[in-house]
Automatic annotation (TrEMBL):
It comes from the Bacteria. This is Uncharacterized protein.
Length: 145
């Protein structure tokens, strides 16, 4: 029995050296440095750029209706021209495509509503774009006169 107690005490001393001397164990810090650090995501949300709303532009479409018999539009035959302007149109897209779409829509409307008399055609059309509604409306008044 005394032998078991001595051997048992001896084994314990070996394990005590391995497990109880944890102060001398070096820890590998590579795992700790490679783990991602999570920031507070609310700071990212506050730093995002806000998109300002697009300020609309205002346009009018202007068309010249002339007799089919006039091969070219000149100042001499201006008395036979008819000038017509659209209502003021609000536009957010003022690309070339958008402008031509508005001119095509206006032209179709004129033909559809019978604004172009028999024997006449739309010979020229133009779209004018302004920064304010007032500017567009004032220019429209000039066409009406």
């Amino acid at each position: 029995m005394a032998f078991c107690a001595i051997v048992g005490c001896k084994k314990r001393d070996i394990w005590d050296d391995v497990y109880l001397d944890s102060d001398s164990i070096s820890t590998d810090t590579t795992y700790q440095t490679s783990t991602p650090v999570f920031n507070n995501s609310t700071s990212i949300i506050h730093d995002t750029v806000t998109i300002a709303p697009i300020k609309p532009k205002y346009a009018i479409v202007w068309a010249i209706i002339a007799p089919n018999s006039d091969s070219t539009l000149t100042k001499e035959n201006i008395s036979r021209y008819q000038s017509i302007g659209s209502d003021v149109i609000e536009m957010t897209d003022i690309s070339e495509d958008a402008k031509y779409k508005k001119m095509d829509e206006f032209e179709r409307t004129l033909y559809k509503e019978g604004a172009v008399p028999v024997g006449m055609n739309i010979r020229k059309r133009k779209i004018l774009v302004f920064d304010s509604y007032a500017e567009a409306s004032k220019q429209r008044e000039e066409f009406i006169k």
